[in-house]
Specification:
The protein is an alpha/beta fold. The chain has one domain (2-164): Purple Acid Phosphatase, chain A, domain 2 (4-Layer Sandwich). The chain contains four helices and ten strands; from the N terminus they run βαβαβββαβββββα. The chain has helices at 14-23, 35-44, 94-102, 158-164, and strands spanning 2-6, 27-30, 50-52, 69-74, 77-82, 107-109, 117-120, 126-129, 139-146, 149-157. The strands form two sheets. The chain has a five-stranded mixed β-sheet. The protein is globular, with a radius of gyration of 14 Å. It starts with a strand and ends with a helix.
Length: 165
């Protein structure tokens, strides 16, 4: 399963659409800051499963009951999805990683900082921040999962899209 991870689009959806067309993912995750962008993307690509959480800029853009953190099982891997502001990730990822480990997930995906990051902790936990799909630069995350194992986890930039076509 190939998964495109997006965050912090802030009303700039061009890069997200280019990612969809170049990558042709099996599923899409939008980690907030403008959930309406994610909903629009979902309408443009109706056959692709879509997962979404709100960000700190989404209080009036989404259903107040929308969960800020969810855990999904994709192709056998457990993924924790959150925007990150509730865990104060701009200060430190300590709280986020603690909660991810408590939840016994294979990977934690978050946004909010607008800084792309992808790494694996010593205990095997994958940590992915796709950066900003919006006007802050144009970056995304990419994950490939098969039979519960994360085979690939990385960040994508504008120049990577051409190679994927």
């Amino acid at each position: 399963m190939k998964i495109l991870i997006l965050s912090d689009s802030h009303s700039y959806s061009d890069f997200m659409q280019r990612c969809m067309d170049a990558c042709r993912p099996d599923a899409v995750i939008h980690l907030g800051d403008y959930v309406s962008d994610g909903k629009d993307l979902r309408c443009l690509y109706p056959g692709v499963p879509f997962y979404q959480v709100p960000g700190n800029c989404d209080s009036y853009r989404c259903d107040p009951g929308m969960m800020h953190t969810i855990i999904v099982n994709l192709s056998g891997a457990r993924l924790m999805l959150t925007h990150g502001h509730d865990y104060y990730v701009k200060e430190s990822t300590y709280r986020l990683l603690r909660e991810a480990r408590k939840a016994k997930v294979d990977a934690v995906l978050y946004g909010h900082t607008h800084s792309a990051d992808c790494h694996q902790e010593e205990d095997g936990l994958w940590v992915l921040n796709p950066g900003s799909a919006g006007y802050f630069g144009g970056s995304a995350g990419w994950m490939e999962i098969e039979n519960g194992k994360i085979l690939k986890c990385c960040n994508l930039r504008k120049e990577d899209l051409e190679a994927m076509k």
